[in-house]
Amino acid sequence: MNSEPPVWTPITPAAPRHLFILGSARQGGNAERLARHAAAHLPAATPVQWLSLREHPLPPFEDRRHEPGAVFAPPRGPEAELLAHTLAADHLVFVVPVYWYSLPADAKRYLDYWSAWLRVPGAEFRARMAGKTLSVITCLSDDDPALAEPLLQTLRLGASYMGMRFHGALVAYGNRPGDALARPAQLAAAARLFQPPE
Fold this sequence. Notes:
InterPro entries: Flavodoxin_fold, Flavoprotein-like_sf, ISF_SsuE-like. 31% of the residues lie in helices and 16% in strands.
């Protein structure tokens, strides 16, 4: 009897693309609105995909790495879709508000699943993530951008661990829906986020 774990085979699209990962507990929040403004300033031919973590719910993550004989089987359902979209992207953009100085729960859970995907036979997750680009668009209900630093550091360190390039972050003020779009400087920063350096 063959005891080898099943191998997961991802589908890779022909063209690289920007994947905007919506991690807020609110639909159409300030970070998402700024992200859509930023995306509108990408070159016209750039493939763009929007992925809502609320629409791909994941169960609580079980860390079985150190259990005897533990195997992370090929994912199914929403987890399989998230893994496939993640690997297919060339540039991952985390679109997340600051919740308690860190990531919202759905976004943190999505990152926790990266630990499992590192161990899914056939996914080659770390090797395929290496060289991709990661950016962040975040909003907080305070004028001090330093309060977003714990969130940013989580994603910077995660990108470094995976061999990804951290492109940068847009940290903006936004409390009530629409606040972020009321500040011209923030709109201008969003428009510049994906522009090549001069």
